[in-house]
Amino acid sequence: MASFLAGVVAVAAAGWWVRRRAPSPVARGARRPAVSVRSTVAGSATAELCLVWRRSHEELARLPDEDPARGRLAAIRQVLLDELESREAAGFRRWLDNGAMAGADPLPYLRVEHGLAEPGPPGVA
Questions:
Q1: HEC string for 26-66
Q2: What is d(CA 110, CA 48) in angstroms, rounded to the nearest whole number?
Q3: What is the phi-psi region of residue 99: left when phi exceeds 0, alpha when psi lies from -120 to 50, beta otherwise?
Q4: C-alpha dist (Å) from residue 21 to 2, 14, 33, 43, 98
Q5: What is the spatial distance between Cα 59 and Cα 37, in angstroms, rounded to a whole number?
Q6: Is the overall model pTM greater than 0.70, yes or no?
Q7: How far apart are CA 88 and CA 113, in angstroms?
């Protein structure tokens, strides 16, 4: 029962995030456009993607190995990695070179929205 609930939570959390980022219908009763994870990720702020990256790792840790939700969540995490790398390849590489862990925050290594964050881990030039 617990593993089923964890799987539902993981899928629901990913779905909630995608739906939250979707534009709302213009008129009452208007049909919502289909939204893909990839398009939602592309329209999200880098800091938000890093937060989803960390939270999705926490959710993966809760799911049993045989749970099919793990595969769906892993696919979402791959989309997140692809987007982060496409936005800031040098910072992404720094994160990997510094021993990036599955639940580690890549944000300190990335230049966020026009260079507002220093590249590299805190305290490292």
A1: CCCCCCCCCCCHHHHHHCCCHHHHHHHHHHHHHHHHHCCCC
A2: 13
A3: left
A4: 29, 11, 12, 8, 31
A5: 17
A6: no
A7: 10
Q: What is the pLDDT of residues 33-77, one digit of tens each?
A: 456 888 888 889 999 999 999 999 999 999 999 999 999 999 999
Q: Kindly state the tokens that stand for 33.
A: 């456009």
- 36 neighbors 79 (Cβ within 8 angstroms): no
Round to whole Å and give the CA distance between 64 and 67.
6
Nearest to 92 by CA among 52, 50, 37: 50
Q: Which token pair is 3?
A: 């593993």
Q: Which of 35, 98, 84, 24 is nearest to 56 (CA)?
A: 84
Q: What is the mean pLDDT of residues 3-31?
A: 48
Distance CA 72, CA 9 (A): 12
| Residues 94, 109 contacting (CB under 8 angstroms) | yes
